[in-house]
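Hi Y.,

Following your request, here is the sequence exactly as I used it, all 242 residues.
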Amino acid sequence: MRSLRRPVAFATLMGVLAVPALAGQRGNSGNHGPSTHPVHPNGPANAGPKTNNGAGSHGPASSGTSGKHTGTGNPHKPGTTTTATTTAAPTTINFNTTPVGSKLTKNVALQSKLATRLTALGYGGTVFEAAYGFKNLGQFVAATNISQNLGIPFEQLKLQMTGLTVDATGKVLQGNLNPDGSITLVDPANVTHAAPTKSLGQSIQTLKPTANATTAANTANTEAENEIEHTTTTTPKGKKKS
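Below is the corresponding structure, written out as tokens. Let me know if you'd prefer a different format.
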């Protein structure tokens, strides 16, 4: 019995001594659970993306000269407008010698009649400035008739039909279509996207939606033809102008 008890007691003693040693091993190197990394005192506290402009930031900078746009913004974004930065020397135009102006110079009776009509309509320029930009004399006279018949401001009607206007100083301006759909009057040399022009009927629909555009346009054109015919001096065949 004594010989049997000694091995058992010895085995029990060895087991008791091995437990602290094994526990110490697990505490130092045998723990495979979650561990925490020590914080380096000299390293950045926040390892995430930086939003400042320091030299150590690898993300896109929020300011700085290299990424700054000095223009007028994204021209493709609705609601933004583009301002021309170049200024072209204005071209001097003799409105009396344009194709329509030349015809008015030769037809003094019509010239006088249209000048009186335009003044009554509130137009402040000359009859030659008013005629500038129209394709022909008939189109110009018809436009003055529509303005008179329907009460549409002549300047607005002209801008719709020709895309042009003449300011109080005699300078020609052209409509420039902005990305948001609005129109800005600029020097023709600075136009980036010319505003589309419309026919007489289309212009009436835009400016006077309640009117019958087709009927109004036909009436104005007929009146224009009669006015031009009755004020034009013709030379009979076989005779020379005196």
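The chain has a mean pLDDT of 74.

Thanks again,
Q.
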